[in-house]
């Protein structure tokens, strides 16, 4: 959503201010990177939750213990 809004604004500003295409691409790349970092953060939080759950089960249940 943010990316499309910023892209639209850049398109309008680009035609008015003649912003070089390279700058537009870098801004769009930065926005895409921000989205990907957000996705990775969610994935790492999910992994952390699973690991914490597994650790608590290992402590409570002898059948889950390794070794």
- Helix-strand topology string: HH
Taken from the alpha-carbon principal axes, the silhouette is: rod-shaped
Rg: 22 Å
The whole-number mean of residue pLDDT values reads 83
Please summarize the sheet with the most strands.
Answer: none
- Counted by DSSP, the helix tally is 2
Helix percent band: over 70%
Q: Strand percentage, roughly?
A: under 5%
Give a description of the structure.
The protein has helices at residues 2-17, 21-60. With 67 residues, the chain is mostly helical. It has one domain. Helix 1 (2-17) packs antiparallel against helix 2. The longest helix has 40 residues, at 21-60. It is rod-shaped. The termini are far apart.
Task: Offer a few descriptive terms.
2 helices, mainly alpha, 67 residues
Secondary-structure map with pairings?
Elements: H1 2-17, H2 21-60
Tell me briefly what this model is.
Helices cover 84% and strands 0% of the residues.
């Amino acid at each position: 959503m943010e990316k499309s809004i910023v892209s639209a604004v850049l398109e309008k500003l680009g035609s008015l201010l003649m912003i070089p295409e390279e700058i537009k691409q870098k801004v769009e790349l930065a926005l895409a990177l921000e989205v990907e970092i957000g996705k990775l953060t969610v994935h790492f939080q999910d992994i952390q939750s699973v690991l914490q759950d597994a650790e608590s089960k290992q402590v409570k249940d002898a059948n889950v213990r390794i070794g």
